[in-house]
Amino acid sequence: MATTHHPEEAPTLQARGTARAYAVPAARRHPWRQVLQTIGKHLLVGGVGLIFVFPVIWMFLASTRTDAEIFQWPPEIIPHHWTWSNYSDAFSFGNPGCTLLTCNFARYTRNTVIIAGFNVIGTLISCSLSAYAFARVNWRGRGFVFLIVLSTMLLPYPVTLIPVYIIFKNLNMIGTSGILFGYGPLIVPAFFGNAFFIFLLRQFFMTIPRELDEAALIDGAGHLGIFTRVILPLSRPALAVVALLTFLNNWTDLFGPMIYLNDTSLYTLSLGLQEFRGAHTFHWSLLMAASVLFILPIVILFVIAQRTFIQGITMTGLKG
Fold first, then answer.
1. Which domains occur in the chain, in start order?
2. pLDDT tens by residue, 11-39
3. CA-to-CA distance for 309 and 320, rounded, in angstroms?
4. Of 4, 90, 289, 317, which shows the fewest CB atoms inside 10 Å?
5. pLDDT tens for residues 84-134?
């Protein structure tokens, strides 16, 4: 059926067509405005980022100059003479002439890597198994037990410090010089789970479709098979986040080693840096160099695993 238009409607329709033809987006009519907005956003983000990064940049620059140049006024950003010998002096940690493997810094690094490595392994095993039980297995009282696990996050560390210390004291794991028992109080708790990481992994496991579990059950797989062959391969970003955060927490931990470690041969980098600060209170250039060496592995690790870390952060906790 043909549509008819009244003669008085023709100008209106023609005007609408003309308006649509000339209705160009504002971004096309004023491209310079969008360019200025983009430049402004990048300058704002870059300026805020520079505020946070500047202390690290200043620490690195201070590590390459003498103490007199650090406190000169007016201060200078770029040093006149790059004193790279500060790093070799800081690496020796008060025993000049040592080799790469016998220096105190190397021993402290080895001890820290041992503690952080075992904590990563224990946290991944205990937290992933617990998170799978809370997310994929139906059993009576699951919600109540999970609520109790989350409630432990409300307990501050000093509250549980004394009971845990007494337990390890009765187990003869405090004051010993062996690596197995000397590091026991710093390693064993990782194999009993962490409430925050259990919650983090549980949220990620719940985003995985249950149809995959059902398909694996049809193929004859049990819970262990589903966990190792279906859940874990799909949860690599979340597991990477847990591993990186655990490694970072143990690498920078000072309070735990200070409480449980008495033998200087078992000291970690945090304790070694604290000891170095006490011995070189007024040698700020050496202290800055030691601090740069302390944070350098963390920066390298984050740069290598940056994409996986960000992916795990964005994909975790999307489903409650």
1. 41-83 (no CATH), 104-315 (1.10.3720.10)
2. 554 545 554 544 555 555 567 778 888 88
3. 21
4. 4
5. 887 877 777 656 666 666 677 888 888 899 999 999 999 999 999 999 999
